[in-house]
Amino acid sequence: MPDIVTAAMVVIGDEILSGRTKDKNIGHLADILTAIGIDLKEVRIVPDEEDEIVAAINAVRARHTYVFTTGGIGPTHDDITADSVSKAFGVPCEYDEKAYAMLEAHYQAREMAFTEARKRMARMPRGADHIDNPISLAPGFRIGNVHVMAGVPSIFQAMLDNVVPTLATGTKLISATVQCPFGEGTIGDALGAIQRAHPDTIIGSYPKYLDGKFWTELVVRARSEAALAPAVKAVEEMVAAKAADATTA
Amino acid sequence: MPDIVTAAMVVIGDEILSGRTKDKNIGHLADILTAIGIDLKEVRIVPDEEDEIVAAINAVRARHTYVFTTGGIGPTHDDITADSVSKAFGVPCEYDEKAYAMLEAHYQAREMAFTEARKRMARMPRGADHIDNPISLAPGFRIGNVHVMAGVPSIFQAMLDNVVPTLATGTKLISATVQCPFGEGTIGDALGAIQRAHPDTIIGSYPKYLDGKFWTELVVRARSEAALAPAVKAVEEMVAAKAADATTA
């Protein structure tokens, strides 16, 4: 039996919702999780508002093996993720001793003031573990199944690299793509029949539109080669048959 | 008093969650809504699963003035948005007479079969209005406050252009950006004080990291010039003062 591990992502930040910043983290997390056999099942983008963050975290952490958040862990007043996650878990948000000492030493060595703003980056829910930040030092953290990371893509990616080896992964979903020169309307009936005949697969149809012409990418996914191969063969034969029809028509 | 109009977006599709397709519609909708004075307050990305789509639609349509969905309205078996939205509203999903006739005539004129798959694109919740699709004909639809549109970006954008003139809009959030050559830790305390002194504004701090150096974009938003201008001035003066400190240090 395949082992299914699911995840949700919570993207925190007004700047994504206003359109000012275009998110680059959703696609990256999706790629990484797919590669290691974890199914990303939902994403929520929420504003910098405590109630919204708390509600989203609590809704998804109960439903999934893992939760990943991005954004809102910097030093400014609009960075309220640590407080919100603490509230979601019902624990105090406080200076983490190790993070505080590390940041204090870091700024001292650079003869920079350890301002209240910078101290904020040492705050996390009581009992949280660090997620190391090799780029700008201030750590992310993990509490329960929730992994809290930075929103700046390069820092998020570096933090995620540190998280990946700690995750229990499931049976990877493998996939094969069949390029189809026809639009969905031409192959939809036959494709639906193939999906029904191969219930252990997930067959997706992704319409493409370019220069006035429709074509389709057909993607077959499954958790074993034994399930995948016959469904891919059926899709390929169906597309070839449509092509033959089109030639003789 | 400013008039606040809020919106949510539901992105429907396994392909976004698997990472195979990188979403381009969230940023576009966010830009358009911001430009016309509607606040996008949440986005949910859900898989091609009826229960998940129904739950997301019902959660957000009760909370916001408008809901916009993308994806899942094509002709294939994995396009289940029309059924799911119908279920969310508790109405039957059936062939829309006008859409059916339009599509039938379209395929007839092109001597193409009006397959069961193509007929699926005429299905919508009873009582829904069309959203015209100038690119590939098959319409989106609106029911209640929910606007259901295609996932292919060019078609989504064209449909949205048809929807925008029908929307009641609020007082636009205006904004000004101050480029700050310092990282958030340097300006965080002072910026927090400015936010507290200007409660009618939303001051966002967006950390940037490039080539080993941190800098920050500070964005002040408000619903009137009278609220915006003094806060922007305060931010500019604060950044100038930090620059003077840095020069004399």
UniProtKB/TrEMBL annotation, chains A, B:
Superkingdom of origin organism: Bacteria
SUPFAM superfamilies: Molybdenum cofactor biosynthesis proteins (SSF53218)
Alphabetical list of InterPro entries matching this protein: CinA (IPR050101), FLAD1_M (IPR056596), MoaB/Mog-like_dom_sf (IPR036425), MoaB/Mog_dom (IPR001453)
SMART domains attached to this UniProt entry: MoCF_biosynth
Domain named MoaB/Mog: residues: 8-170
A Pfam family that the UniProt record links to this protein: FLAD1_M
Signal peptide start and end residues: none
Name the UniProt record assigns to this protein: Competence/damage-inducible protein A
